[in-house]
Write a structure and sequence with these properties.
Distance between the termini of chain B: 37 Å
Largest sheet of chain A: 2 strands, antiparallel
Domain ABC transmembrane type-1 (chain B): 88-281
Helix content of chain A: over 70%
Distance between the termini of chain A: 9 Å
Largest sheet of chain B: none
Protein name (chain B): Carbohydrate ABC transporter membrane protein 2 (CUT1 family)
Family (chain B): Belongs to the binding-protein-dependent transport system permease family.
Strand content of chain B: under 5%
CATH architecture of the largest domain in chain A: Orthogonal Bundle
Keywords (chain B): Cell membrane, Membrane, Transmembrane, Transmembrane helix, Transport
Strand content of chain A: under 5%
Number of strands of chain A: 2
Radius of gyration of chain A: 27 Å
Order of helices and strands of chain B: HHHHHHHHHHHHHHH
Oligomer: heterodimer
Subcellular location (chain B): Cell membrane
Chain lengths: 319, 296
């Protein structure tokens, strides 16, 4: 929008404009330098490096003894083929998929419900509730996994205590069948408050005269929530959903922290745990790199929508 | 539609209507309070559990308090010469310094992207925005191998440096700069002959300040929360942040159950400062992901 539409300027003006242009180009780039350098060093370079590693493998000659017997060679897409064919990888992806199906609808459903209740004029104790429900966001995933991990132990769990009083048998939540729910609960606990605040913020942005009219017409709070408020916060819901998908794909801290308390979590329980194990326990950084790239591509495919929504909504009018 | 039929007296309509809309709903409030109970349950438990000694932990009722909180804190403090407090200090350094520098970089980049017109702006912003989508966790492993090549792993730098760049912070800073800084003000400063950096520090930063606090908080929590990066980068437990330290302690607890009380007391002490920070800076948590840009 700057120079394109203007006609050819006179020589003196042209000279000044050239100097102007130089400072207008150099100054912003100089000021962006810290951001660009950090971005290149800690985001672009690692990504490129992962791609390079993923295309290589170690070739062992002879018995694999001696310094020259092992060499790094180009492997093409072999690592990718191996990763995709690895049943452990498939199982971990499936697990994370099921995990996401539990976590995301429940977490966002409760977040929306609590946000609507906070916004409703008929609720009481809203200030206190808002702070209390948001509080888990202040607790790091490792610490929350640790707290819930203890609460899952039969000798500590208040639910087991209650069930014993009532003589009801209780299933072991850390057993192989239920451990998925045990991990999911930790994620829901940690995420409900944050997502509630996101949705609540966009509810507060709605001018209240919009539903004043509906109230005059006799609409109930539930009708107003369902017909007016929810449709308006849909963009926020899409956003939180996509952020949640990204977070789900990289679940690592919760199951890793819980592992000492249960035998039901394998070292490749989630894709990222498998990458960690391959890279550091098995010293196979090449196949770990290929698996990382697959996870990243999966994340990109799933969050492509997010980019479009954000760009259109936030910057559509500015550029 | 039915309002007139139910409230025929016109002058009282306004009061009646508001009275109806604001009549407390026991059901709604009860659901909210159930959510509160769920969210506070583990927090209340850790407060109670950290007052118990090792044998009480698994024998007395979960939520029954005991009297050993001070003993536990003393024992935790003495554990390997105060290692726990070193972990707390490390966490404060990683999260505090990291978030501060990161907010500054984000503010500068966001300000430039919002208030300057230059060739390649769209490309730069587009690439940065793609960075928002790259989970930092996926970067941690290649970052380790790259830093290992220049011998920086197992140092403070290895945890600090990768977390200084926050595409999401830059994205938010651009929104705040676009909304909070009138272009005329920047132009006026330029006409007066102020340098670009002076304009940024003297004019832009104060105007963006509330937004910058939000960016700082986001990055602070992100670093505090990041488990994988320090877990991969650090071998020396004197450099650990609290999360990696406590996770390791829990791991040893599988063979030495006496460590469980230390883990629990440590968990309590580690969330206290963060909870205080949260309550104190509550008003800065205005998280409008979708429409943050439109408010001036």
């Amino acid at each position: 929008m700057t120079a394109v539409t203007q006609t050819a300027p006179r020589p003196a003006v042209a000279k000044r404009r050239r100097r102007d242009l130089r400072s207008r180009v150099l100054t912003p780039y100089a000021m962006l330098l810290p951001g660009i350098v950090l971005f290149l060093a800690f985001m672009a370079a690692p990504i490129l490096y992962t791609v390079v590693l993923s295309l290589q493998t170690v070739k062992v000659e002879g018995l694999g003894l001696g310094p020259d017997s092992r060499s790094v060679v180009f492997a093409g897409l072999e690592n990718y083929a191996n990763s995709l064919a690895d049943p452990e990888f498939g199982a971990s992806v499936l697990r994370v998929f099921l995990y996401g199906l539990i976590v995301i609808p429940l977490m966002l459903g409760f977040a929306l419900l609590f946000a609507l209740l906070l916004d409703s004029k008929r609720s009481r104790a809203t200030r206190f509730s808002r702070v209390a429900i948001f509080l888990p966001y202040a607790v790091p995933a490792v610490i929350s996994s640790l707290l819930w991990g203890f609460l899952y132990l039969p000798s500590v769990s208040p639910f087991v205590f209650l069930a014993n009083l009532l003589n009801v048998p209780v299933p072991n939540v850390l057993g192989p069948n239920l451990v998925m729910f045990a991990v999911a609960n930790i994620a829901i606990w940690g995420g409900v408050g944050f997502n509630m605040i996101v949705i609540y913020t966009s509810l507060r942005a709605i001018p209240s005269d919009i539903y004043e009219a509906a109230r005059i017409d006799g609409a109930t709070e539930v009708q107003i929530a369902w017909r007016i408020k929810i449709p308006i916060v849909i963009p926020s819901l899409i956003m939180t959903a996509l952020f949640s998908i990204i977070a789900t794909l990289q679940v690592f801290a919760e199951p890793t922290t819980l592992r000492p308390l249960t035998n039901s979590l394998s070292t490749s329980w989630t894709p990222l745990m498998k990458v960690y194990r391959d890279a550091f326990t098995r010293n196979d950084i090449y196949s770990a790199a290929a698996t990382s790239v697959l996870i990243a591509v999966g994340t990109f495919v799933l969050s492509f929508l997010f980019l479009r929504v954000v760009q259109r909504r936030a910057f559509g009018q500015e550029d | 539609m039915a309002t007139i039929a139910t409230t025929p007296v016109l002058p009282a309509t306004t009061r009646t209507r508001r009275g109806h809309a604001e009549r407390p709903s026991a059901f709604g409030t009860a659901i909210l309070l159930l959510g509160v109970v769920y969210c506070l349950l583990p927090v209340v438990w850790v407060v109670m559990a950290s007052t118990k000694n090792g044998s009480e932990l698994f024998s007395t009722f979960t939520f029954a308090p005991s009297t050993h909180l001070l003993d536990n804190i003393v024992e935790l403090t003495q554990y390997r010469g105060g290692l726990f407090w070193l972990w707390m200090l490390n966490t404060a350094i990683y999260a505090g310094v990291g978030a501060l520098v990161s907010s500054l970089v984000s503010a500068l980049s966001g300000y430039v992207l919002a208030k300057f017109d230059f060739p390649g702006k769209g490309v730069v912003f587009g690439i940065l925005l793609m960075g928002v989508l790259v989970p930092s966790v996926i970067l941690a492993i290649p970052q380790y191998f790259l830093l290992a090549q220049i011998g920086l792993t197992n140092t403070y730098w290895s945890v600090l440096l990768p977390q200084l760049i926050s595409p999401y912070g830059i994205y938010l800073a651009r929104i705040y700069a676009a909304a909070a800084i009138p272009t005329d003000v920047v132009e006026a400063a330029r006409t007066e002959g102020a340098g670009e950096l002076t304009t940024f520090f003297r004019i832009a930063i104060p105007m963006m300040a509330p937004g910058l606090v939000t960016i700082f908080l986001f990055q602070f929590v992100a670093i505090w929360n990041n488990f994988l990066l320090p877990y991969i980068m650090l071998g020396d437990d004197h450099l650990f942040p609290i999360t990696v330290g406590l996770s390791g302690l829990l791991n040893q607890g599988a063979t030495v159950p006496a460590l469980y009380t230390l883990v629990i007391t440590g968990a309590l002490l580690s969330i206290v400062p963060l909870i205080i920070l949260f309550l104190a800076l509550q008003r800065f948590w205005r998280v409008d992901l979708a429409a943050g840009a439109v408010k001036a």
